[in-house]
Write a structure and sequence with these properties.
There is one protein chain. The protein is an all-alpha fold. The protein contains twelve helices and two strands. The N terminus and C terminus are likely disordered.
């Protein structure tokens, strides 16, 4: 998953082999996958805090532009190290332009605007609704995703959790409706982008790194064109907000994508996507502990219900077949793994 950073992963998911099939050995990593898993959860969880700090001194569009610029630089450096080339083909670039808007430019900007009026913890919880929106949309737009009682139940439970977080029985008292709506719209934008990518780029022969580098670069250009129109040049550059924006881009966008794909390649998408369920917990803890944000009982309770519903929509019934994971290959029957993050 890439709900938080808005990247998509084009990973070749070949058919599941039998238990006797050999699995290619992966390169030895310096850090155990559990440590990288924890690091990714921390990075994505703190991304909402970084946005909050950044928007205290810079306009939301400026925060998003800085985030994309730093994130693109990290992925571009990885491409240079691995000697990856940018994708070719006019239609590929057209599709990547749309993907960059739906998965990066639009949701990143909406989250930044939302945090002008809502706590970072609430934005993080709203982000956790992406699997729910994704499942609802995929049941309509993707013929291979058939509705089941398990998924329908997960959707119902998840949206009940959303209503709990919002305190619907209180008539949304004390809640900034506009800011919350922007955060939910940002979360909705991710699955719309994933479905578009699955329909247009799932069969691409280009590597995941090449496609994502181009996607982030195009999103950066989109923000570079929009930001000067709606904002003026900042008159000051306070150290803490600047560092927050840099961390948001370098860690929460660029490095997070590289860690996420590495995890998918090593432990498989099912295990790797579980990081999504830790992100709102960390976002809430960081907002309360470091920013002094208030927390009513309905927020953690509702968040737990949202995550339970999201987990149910993503679960699959057990079968007797072996689930031995294979390492992704960008050139074999690519399929798009929808993710978590910001």
């Amino acid at each position: 998953m890439c709900y938080e950073n808005g990247c998509f992963i084009v990973a070749g998911m070949s058919s599941v082999p039998s238990s006797s099939a050999s699995v290619p050995s992966s390169p030895r990593r310096v850090l155990d996958w559990r440590l990288r898993f924890g690091l990714l959860a921390l990075v994505w969880g703190f991304s909402f805090l970084f946005m909050k700090v950044g928007t205290e001194s810079f306009a939301p569009f400026q925060v998003t532009l800085g985030r994309l610029a730093f994130g693109t630089a990290v992925v571009a450096a990885a491409m240079a190290v691995k000697r990856e080339r940018l994708p070719r083909g006019a239609w590929t670039w057209v599709h990547l332009t749309v993907a960059g808007f739906l998965l990066n430019a639009l949701p990143f900007s909406l989250f930044a605007f939302s945090e002008l009026t809502i706590p970072s913890s609430l934005a993080g919880i709203c982000n956790a609704t992406s699997p729910l929106w994704g499942m609802a949309l995929s049941l309509v737009a993707l013929s291979e995703d058939r509705p089941t009682r398990r998924r329908v139940a997960g959707l119902g439970i998840g949206f009940l959790g959303v209503l709990t977080v919002l305190g619907v029985w209180q008539g949304f008292h004390g809640l900034d409706v506009t800011g919350t709506a922007l955060a939910l719209l940002a979360s909705f934008s991710y699955p719309v982008g994933w479905i578009y990518v699955r329909r247009t780029l799932a069969g691409s022969s280009h590597s995941h790194l090449s496609l994502t580098g181009a996607q982030l670069g195009l999103a950066t250009l989109q923000l570079a064109a929009v930001t000067p129109v709606f904002t003026s040049v900042p008159t000051a550059f306070p150290v803490l907000p600047v560092l927050a924006v840099a961390a948001l881009g370098v860690l929460g966008t660029g490095l997070a994508f590289l860690i996420q794909y590495d995890l998918v390649a090593e432990v498989g998408p099912t295990t790797a996507q579980m990081v999504t369920y830790f992100t709102p917990v960390i976002a809430t803890a960081a907002g309360v502990a470091l920013l002094g944000e208030s927390l009513s009982w309905s927020t953690p309770v509702g968040a737990a219900v949202v995550l339970a519903g999201a987990a149910l929509t993503q679960s699959r019934p057990r079968t007797g077949r072996s689930r031995t994971a294979t390492a992704p290959s960008p050139r074999t029957s690519p399929g798009v793994r929808e993710g978590s993050r910001v």
